[in-house]
Structures are given as C-alpha cells and as structure tokens.
Design a protein that fits this description.
By secondary structure, the chain is mostly helical. It contains 13 helices and four strands. It has two domains: 57 residues; 225 residues, Collagenase (Catalytic Domain), CATH 3.40.390. Helix 2 crosses helix 5, helix 3 crosses helix 6 and helix 5 crosses helix 6. The two termini are 20 Å apart. It binds zinc ion. Zinc ion (ZN) binds next to helix 8 and helix 10.
C-alpha cells in the first residue's frame, strides 16, 4: 500500500485545471467573476477532501508501531513472525495504513477485542505483502460478529458460517474464528485469508476463482488449466485441499490461498503447479519465507 498514488495525483491535478479553466472561460464570456469564484471554491474543497486521505496515511505511517502490536503478531501471526526485518517494516506500515483508513467495527454495538481487530487487519495485509502497489480489496472494511458462528440471516450463535465475503459490503468475520486461526504453528486454514481471496475474486463482479483485476499478464491460460485440474483432484479425493474447495473454482481459490499462506510446504510438494501460479499471483514465496532461506521474492 502507498500513502500517495501518482495516478491519483495526476488525475486530480488535471481535474482541478479543467474546473479552473471552465471557470475562467465562463467568467470571460459572461463578464462576471462569479463562475471563477465558484470554480476556485470547488477546486479548493476537492483538493482538501482528496488530500485528507493522503495526510491520514502519512501520519499513520509516521507513528511508531506499538510494541504491544509487535508482540501480539510475533506470538500469533506466523507469516509476520517469519518475515525478514525489512519486510516486517513493510507489513507494519501496511497494517498502520489499513487500521487508519479502513473501518473495523463490531456488529450492532458489539465491541470486538483488540486482538481480533488487529489479527483481522493483519490477515488482509498478509495477502498484500508481495505487491506494494496493491490496495486492500475491502473498501467497506471489516465487520466482526461475536462468538464463533452465524447463520445466513446474520444471527450470531446459529448456523455454521464463520466468515462471509458479500459482493458489496464489509468482510464479515466471527471473532472466535479469527482468534483460533491465528496461532503458531498455523493450522492449514484461516478465515481472514479465505474471505480476502473472495474479495479479490469479486473485484471484476464475478467470484469464479479468476481474480481478473489483479491477474499478472500472461498467467490466464495456465491459471484456467491448473484450476480445472485441481478441481477434479479435490472432487476425486486426491488433493490436500479440504473437500469444501470442490464446491467450485471460487472456493478452490479461497481454500488454496489459505493453504498457500499457512502450510506452503505441503502445497509445494503435492500441488507444485498450483503453488507456482499462486506464487506468481501473490508475488511471494511463503515456503522460502518460512524456511528463512531467502527474501520473499520468487
Ligand atoms: Zn468461501
């Protein structure tokens, strides 16, 4: 994540110049200062609202990373704990920006624990680690439910849903599931990784296991072929991915992402082609990070 995106800056300057030019033109034609005055006021407020986000991010990054957060991540977030120091700094900055810029709320007055909030945010930024230019796919942030499960009518304490990625809206996570999934050694599943992968997938409007908007160029064909193959393996019971991945390509992508970031060695061994395409997609190699042998890069 970045504090300032050059493309946004260029777009904003061009937009402000167009508004000011229109104001000058209309002032000359109408022989009145009013259009120019309105254009200046509009440009000022537009620039102000736009720069607010940038300043918020800059001040978040400038703040020191709290030692208590670092301790919690070291004890609970295996991926973070294995990163080399320079990569840890990137992770910590992303986490600070995420917490400053994206809401994390509890359901209807419920106050999620500090640990659950921090680990949920850490889960999202884990998937961004390999791409400094990537933004979180969750513009509406995260909504945390009390307990472990909820049902399809969003009633906590019922049903068997632990996380949800609605097409529009915040990521929904149950608090207990977040806390249980972030332990060391990590289990081969993680509700935050799973739902974040679904949000990547939703960005092109269809969650079908093909996150088009973030797909590296040239990977599409191989991706389709590997996914078709892997789906068949899951359905035949020949995969290390849990049965739920066989529901369809969308769930396959989400479950594979969980395994890739939690237990990459077994994925690399049993599903080398799936491991390879996820490595290219996320632009990092968790097996290398976990073994401490190399930096995150391929
Ligand atoms: Zn799912």
């Amino acid at each position: 994540m970045k504090t300032l995106y050059r493309i946004d800056l260029i777009f904003s300057i061009v937009y402000i110049l167009i508004v000011l030019s229109a104001g000058i033109f209309l002032s000359l034609v109408l022989r009145s200062y009013l259009p120019l005055l309105l254009a200046v006021v509009f440009a000022f407020f537009y620039g102000y609202f736009l720069s607010r986000k940038t300043f918020r991010r800059i001040s978040a990054v400038r703040r020191a990373f709290p030692e208590s957060w670092r301790r919690l991540l070291t004890e609970r977030a295996y991926f973070y704990s294995k990163l080399p120091p320079e990569e840890k700094r990137i992770f910590e900055n992303n986490l600070k920006i995420f917490l400053a810029d994206f809401p994390i709320r509890g359901r209807r007055g419920f106050q999620p624990s500090r640990e659950a909030r921090l680990l949920a945010a850490a889960g999202v930024v884990t998937l961004l680690q390999g791409h400094p230019e990537w933004e979180p796919p969750t513009p509406d942030g995260i909504l945390i439910y009390p307990g472990e499960r909820f049902d399809e009518d969003y009633n906590p304490g019922r049903g068997n849903i632990t996380g949800m990625a609605p097409y529009r809206g915040p990521m929904i996570l149950s608090e207990k599931r977040i806390l249980e999934d972030f332990v060391i050694p990590p289990p081969p599943f993680n509700v935050v990784y799973h739902e974040t992968a679904h949000f990547f997938d939703w960005e092109d409007g269809r969650a079908e296991g093909f996150p088009l908007n973030r797909m590296p160029p040239g990977l599409e064909e191989e991706w389709m072929e590997v996914f078709e193959n892997e789906l068949e393996r899951v359905r035949k019971g020949e995969s290390i991915l849990r049965d739920y991945a066989g529901t369809g390509p969308g769930e396959l992508f989400a479950v594979a992402t969980e395994v890739f970031f939690t237990t990459p060695f077994s994925m690399k061994k049993h599903h080398p082609r799936l491991f390879r395409i996820l490595k290219l997609f996320y632009n990092l190699n968790p097996a290398a990070i976990f073994s401490g042998k190399s930096q995150k890069r391929l």
